[in-house]
Amino acid sequence: MTRLLPVVVAAALLAFGVVACGGDDSSSTRTQPATEATQEDRSPDESSGGVASDEKAKKGDARPGDGETGGSGSSDFVPKQHDDSGGGSAQFRVKGGDNSVQEFGEEADESEREEAATALHNFLDARAAEEWESACSFLAQDVKASLEQLAGQAQQAEDMSCAGILAKLTNRAALPALRSEAARADVGSLRIEGDRAFVLYRGIGDTVLAVPMTNEDGGWKVASLAGTPLS
Questions:
Q1: Which one, of 134, 116, 113, lies nearest residue 125 by Cα?
Q2: Using an 8 Å Cβ cutoff, are 138 and 166 in contact?
Q3: Predicted structure pTM score
Q4: What is the pLDDT of residues 97-116, one digit of tens each?
Q5: pLDDT given for residue 53 in this prediction
Q6: What does the pLDDT average to over 86-95?
Q7: How far is CA 60 from CA 50, 111, 116, 130, 225, in A?
Q8: Which residue has the higher pLDDT, 200 or 39?
């Protein structure tokens, strides 16, 4: 999976500025204009949801700024509590389809799934709130390194930090969709094999997506800028 990261990030550099992950009610992936933002599309600071539990706040993937080189993270970002439905990967299998992700490795236990889900939720919430340093703190090191390398090749030298690159890549017209995606993400499964895993979750329009994860120093990090639709 690691050797595919540059390809994933390269695709994100080309597309992330004009689309947002997750799909709409017709299961297609498109940008929602900012003028069409709904109550669910409001920023994480304005939307409903509480502060993460003390138990999750103690985890490395729930503290903004951990693992971010050259930055301490944004003090304005507060992790939220998300209630995921769980249920395992069987619910996402497609009869007669390619279920390689749904059958990857083994189904993680509830505790492991919740840890990975917290990392994903924190990344989605921080990105939707434009808290770029915090968003980067939940990304895998390989993703951040690939972003910086590709930005350098594209001569985007104004701000070569992960936070600066994410800010530049994100089209502001996509923010309402990103906020909606962050609010609606419902993790159902974590398929794990060693230090690699996939989080499977439902996004906008009930679209099923998979996001690769990497275990770094005992904590799960998000290994892609966007989920891959499985349905």
A1: 134
A2: no
A3: 0.70
A4: 999 999 999 999 999 999 99
A5: 36
A6: 96
A7: 19, 14, 11, 21, 20
A8: 200
Return d(Cα 163, Cα 167) in angstroms, integer: 6
The pLDDT tens digits for 49-76 are: 333 334 433 333 433 334 333 333 445 8
Task: Return all residues near 153 (Cβ < 8 A) that are at least 6 apart.
Answer: none
Residues 6 or more apart whose Cβ sits within 8 Å of residue 179 = 37, 40, 41, 42, 43, 44, 47, 128
* CA end-to-end distance (rounded Å), the chain: 21
Task: Name all domains of the chain by residue range, CATH numbers in brackets.
Answer: 2-32+55-62+84-229 (3.10.450)
Instruction: Please give the C-alpha separations between residue 45 and each of 125, 127, 141, 207, 220, in angstroms, as whole numbers.
Output: 9, 12, 27, 25, 24
Residue given tokens 């939307």 in the structure block: 47
